[in-house]
Amino acid sequence: MASLFFLFLLLLLPLVVVVLLLLLLLAIIVRPRPVRIPLKGRHVLVSGGSSGIGFALARRAAAEGARVSILARDPDRLRDACDAIRRDTGVDAAALAADVRDPAAVARALETVGPVDVLVCNHGVFVPQELERQSLEEVRFMVEVNLMGTFHLIKAALPAMKQRGKETGLPASIAIMSSQAGQVGVYGYTAYSATKFGLRGLAEALQHEVIMDNIHVTLIFPPDTDTPGLAEELKRRPEITNVIAASSGGMKADDVAQKALNGIKSAQFVVPCNFEGTMLSIATAGLSPQRSYLMAFNEVLGASLMRFVGLCFQWNWFSAIEKWHAKKKCK
Questions:
Q1: DSSP states along 223-276
Q2: ∠ CA(32), CA(33), CA(35), 5° rounding?
Q3: How distant, in Å, are the alpha carbons of 20, 102, 107, 124, 127 from that of 275?
């Protein structure tokens, strides 16, 4: 029995050596290097901060001692959100009423509150529909809010962020709220997915541009989240979209906010929010930056498996679409 155990150890030893060498190599090559983003006493600005994930995130940042500003279009909802943050945390949040589609309005709003240390581009709109049936006005609306609005915010905040970083020597953060629809395209999400996929390209290139300024980009991929926006979205979703979207479990806004804030503080580039999101992140890792050698190890080993799992999901989705169309024809 002892000899069999010894033989097992001898057979296992080469695998252990390979794993340790791979971990060592990954620890050397992962970039950017790990860093922590402090929040206490620093200025956190959250767009789309009057409700949903943005409000939950702003409230959590205030609870951790941050100076908080929230930006949204509706002054009344902003005022209510600031009152709630004050009641829950004792922090007086600044309310900025501006439409992210208007770069001049965004720039003026940011000037009133001064340099930002952590910018959270959380705003977003979603009008689900098949592309053939959707108006170009709705497509343009999503592009202008989700994609161009993020450009407007970052352009307005970046110069002062860089200067503030030079003065304080502390790392800063730009966090961008994407969606799991920014990792995989889904029926009825054609325009929306295009805007959210675009944010990934923006984030990857931007991280290269700002890393030497000690600014760290975080890209967050929430699933369906229980927010006022989701309630409106569900009214228009095609039936088959609900079937496909059910492949990933939904979450509460506060839970997504906690995952997002933890990711921002640890300067993760990609922040998945649930188990399905973690699988998607491994499957779609590609050439994205990775700070954690342990997560890089999971990506290296899990890529082939996640590709197979992804093919299984696609088989399931295409089968559901075929059945749905067959059912429609029978009516």
A1: -SEESHHHHHHHHH--HHHHHHHTTS--EEHHHHHHHHHHHHHTT-SEEE-SHH
A2: 115
A3: 26, 37, 38, 23, 26
pLDDT tens-digit series, residues 49-59 = 999 999 999 99
Which is it for strands 118-121 and 172-177: parallel, antiparallel or unpaired? Answer: parallel
Give dist(CA 176, CA 255) in Å, integer. Answer: 17
Catalytic residue among 178, 193, 248, 281: 178
Does 178 qualify as catalytic in the annotation?
yes
Alpha helices in 90-222 (DSSP H): 103-113, 136-142, 149-168, 190-210
Among residues 51, 196, 265, 281, the one annotated as catalytic is 196
Give, in order, the Cα–Cα distances in Å from 310 to each of 60, 245, 253, 305, 307.
Answer: 34, 14, 26, 9, 5
Q: Which of 127, 159, 160, 98 is nearest to 234 (CA)?
A: 127
- The catalytic position among 47, 192, 193, 248 is 192
Catalytic, 327? Answer no
Q: What is the pLDDT of residues 90-109, one digit of tens each?
A: 999 999 999 999 999 999 99
pTM greater than 0.85 (yes/no) = yes
Residue owning tokens 């088989």: 315
Is 192 annotated in the active site?
yes
